[in-house]
Design goal:
The complex is a heterodimer. Chain A is of the alpha/beta class. Chain A has helices spanning 47-55, 77-82, 100-109, 126-138, 154-167, 184-197, 210-216, 234-239, 241-257, and strands spanning 9-18, 21-31, 36-40, 62-67, 70-71, 85-87, 172-176, 202-206, 219-224, 227-232. Chain A has nine helices and ten strands. The radius of gyration of chain A is 19 Å and the shape is globular. In chain B, strands 1-2 form a two-stranded antiparallel sheet. Chain B has a two-stranded antiparallel ribbon with strand order 3-4. The chains are: A alpha/beta, B mainly alpha.
């Protein structure tokens, strides 16, 4: 089946150097439509850099990134977003002085074709307003309609971050440590939320919490020193001796000890 | 500002607000009669358009421009040339449309210069606008054919066929032309804040990086907004040309750009109506306050410093914060503190101002002797008594002010705490 399927996202021999230091050292990866992939690896392995390369924040030194078969490497973030890839950030990246509703409405305007228009009133854009309301309910912030984003709690801001990410209806979603800084109980609730709102989408997520990783992902990519050490189902990755040796053993121990 | 999304476009409150604004513009010449009053009112209309257009950049887009006078000023020059062409019959447009020529000029130059400036944001943007401003001012001295050299370019607005008896000879007729342009421009600029581009401009101000990841090109947003701001700036400049019938190089100068920044900030960049307050204060300061004292720029600088440090949201935010307190019925308990703050502040300022005035008197009016009258009090700039008296008044005033301020700060945070509690209780119940 997978032979017939065009990968939703494909990386071909992707490399990135900063100065003389090569951070991403030839990554190959193919993610099928609808798959949930968790990217794990020790700190400094290049996980966030990988996301930055895919989403257009950085330009790759060499190699290719293909979104539904179209090359997107070297394109600007907004061009990549328009082609159907959206991302969240590890450090909350929202519009602090706009209300929750306005934050979400900003995230849907382009996808609904409103572009740079100044001949229409926002209040009249029924589809955009309905979509923003719907998003607000999905991320359970509908009671915070008019609250400025900067006045939300941390967990609420993280939820808003996800809401903005999925707002434009992109088919491929990248979440960079969505549960970073959250408590255990918040995390488990949040994972359920992520599962619901990314239903049917292709999902890549960077995650440190091993409980989250094994609960959420169909496949796991282990990145160590800018290379993919293993890319397989959670069970196969868990059983992989090289992964055990390089990373997972200590991370599992960490997770059991309650930290990450 | 709240319920932006749920409020209908045609709600009663908004109609009343705009109706009152129109009425105010229409009736102002009846209340403020006399030549000076009409001039002041006209200049206020012009300044309101200029400051609001500036705030499209500063308050709504987070673009700190040091060169907004380039667009008002070039609008003025194009408008005065358009007026002269109309007078000579070369350009068949009525005088009423001359400000539009200014607007198109402002827009055209914004298309040209903005392409460079809006490629960058933040500090780089600010530096480029400063450079642009210097560039255009230098050009104004190099091309006297267009800028008229030191004497500037003058025109005569009484030209062409009078329409319904309107010749634009009497200043009050010009005032009404300005009032109409002011009303339409203010409505249009307010409407802009309610459009997709207007909202995305706020998003660019808050977090340009995230805007790129929701599909928008931030440069394009900044550039488009810059062009629209340039258009309204040009309208303002065109009205200025009609009002004064002379345009000199200083209208594109850095001082003018600085004044837009200063007074927009003073009025309050975070609220739409803030720059309107700022514009009114700007005209009052430039036309009236400058007559009152030679040290007016010094006072202006001090007020600006004080506001930046203690009320960075400007007068508009002070008003809105107190309206919020009033809406919870807690303003009354602050009134006494406000009175004490005002009285002690004024006493301290009087002492400080007496010293400033004496210093200016020694420097500028040496020929008239050392005596002067300040706020009805006879002072002698050469006597120890006047100086020590001023010092004592100032120290006493500011000392009491500081004590009152500390008490007020505690009181204010107490009231804010009560309000937060009340909001919380409401949301829970």
């Amino acid at each position: 089946m997978s032979a017939l399927l065009k990968p939703a996202l494909e990386l071909k021999n992707l490399r990135k150097s900063f100065g003389k230091t090569e951070i991403i050292r030839g990554i190959n990866l193919a993610v099928n439509p609808g798959e949930r992939v968790a990217i794990i690896g020790p700190n400094g392995a290049g996980k966030s850099t990988l996301f930055n390369l895919i989403s257009g924040r950085f330009e790759p030194t060499s190699g290719e990134v293909l979104l539904n078969g179209t090359r997107i490497d070297g394109k600007k973030p907004f061009e990549i977003n328009r082609l159907g890839l959206s991302r969240s950030f590890q450090i909350t990246n929202i519009f602090p002085k706009l209300s929750v509703f306005e934050n979400l409405r900003c995230s849907v305007l382009w996808s609904l074709g409103y572009r740079y228009t100044f001949f229409k009133f926002l209040a009249d854009l029924d589809d955009a307003n309905a979509r923003a309301e719907e998003l607000m309910q999905m991320i359970k912030l509908d009671k915070k309609h008019d609250v400025l984003a900067m006045n939300l709690t941390y967990a609420e801001q993280r939820a808003l971050e996800i809401g903005i990410t999925i707002g434009g209806g992109a088919g491929v979603i990248l979440l960079d440590e969505p549960t970073a800084g959250m408590s255990k109980s918040e995390t488990s609730r949040f994972i359920e939320l992520i599962k619901t709102v990314t239903e049917g989408k292709t999902l890549l997520t960077v995650e440190h919490d091993m409980g989250v990783v094994f609960g959420l992902a169909d496949k796991i990519a282990v990145v160590v020193y800018g290379e993919v050490l293993a890319f397989d189902t959670p069970d196969a990755v868990r059983a992989n001796a090289r992964v055990q040796e390089a990373y997972l053993g200590s991370a599992v121990a960490d997770a059991q000890a309650g930290g990450h | 500002m709240r319920n932006q999304s749920t409020s209908k476009r045609f709600n009663t409150g908004r109609w009343v607000t705009w109706g009152l604004f129109a009425l105010l513009l229409a009736l102002a010449p009846w209340f403020f009669t006399g030549g000076l009053a009409i001039t002041v009112l006209s200049q206020m209309g012009i300044a309101i358009i200029a400051c609001l257009s500036y705030n499209m950049l500063l308050g709504q887009g987070g673009m700190l421009s040091f060169g907004h006078a380039v667009y008002t000023g070039l609008g003025s020059f194009l408008a005065i040339h358009a007026l002269n062409s109309a007078s000579s019959g070369a350009l068949p447009i009525p005088v009423s449309l001359v400000p539009i020529a200014g607007g198109l000029a402002g827009m055209g130059f914004a298309v040209l210069f903005g392409y460079v400036t809006t490629r960058k944001s933040g500090t780089t943007f600010a530096m480029i606008t400063l450079g642009m401003s210097e560039l255009v001012f230098a050009m104004s001295l190099m091309i006297p054919e267009f800028f008229g050299g030191e004497g500037g370019v003058s025109g005569n607005r009484v030209t062409g066929q009078a329409f319904l008896g309107i010749t634009y000879g009497p200043p009050v007729q010009v005032y009404y032309l300005i009032a109409v342009y002011t009303f339409v421009s203010v409505v249009a600029m307010f409407a802009f804040t309610r459009t997709p581009l207007g909202r995305m401009l706020n998003a660019v101000r808050d977090n340009p990086e995230r805007v790129e990841f929701v599909g928008y090109n931030t440069q394009r947003i900044r550039y488009t907004a810059f062009i629209i701001a340039g258009f309204f700036a040009g309208i303002s400049g065109g009205l200025g040309a009609l009002n004064f019938e002379i345009v000199t190089a200083e209208v594109v100068g850095a001082a003018r750009s600085g004044a837009y920044l200063l007074f927009t900030f003073l009025g309050g960049a975070t609220f739409f109506f803030g720059p309107i307050i700022g514009a009114i204060l700007m005209v009052l300061a430039f036309v009236l306050f400058s007559e009152f004292t030679k040290a007016w720029l010094l006072y202006l600088g001090l007020i600006f410093l004080f506001m930046v440090m203690y009320a960075p949201g400007g007068i508009a935010s002070l008003i809105m914060m107190n309206l919020r307190v009033a809406s919870f019925g807690k303003l009354r308990q602050l009134l006494l503190s406000y009175l004490v703050l005002a009285v002690t502040g004024v006493i301290g300022l009087a002492g400080a101002a007496a010293m400033v005035e004496m210093t200016y008197h020694i420097q500028l009016n040496a020929g008239q002797g050392s005596g002067l009258v300040f706020l009805g009090a006879p002072l002698d700039a050469a006597s120890m008594g006047s100086w020590s008296g001023a010092v004592i008044v100032m120290l006493a005033g500011f000392g009491c002010f500081e004590l009152a301020r500390r008490k007020f700060a505690r009181q204010w945070s107490h009231v804010q705490g009560l309000i937060e509690q009340e909001i919380h209780e409401r949301s829970v119940s």
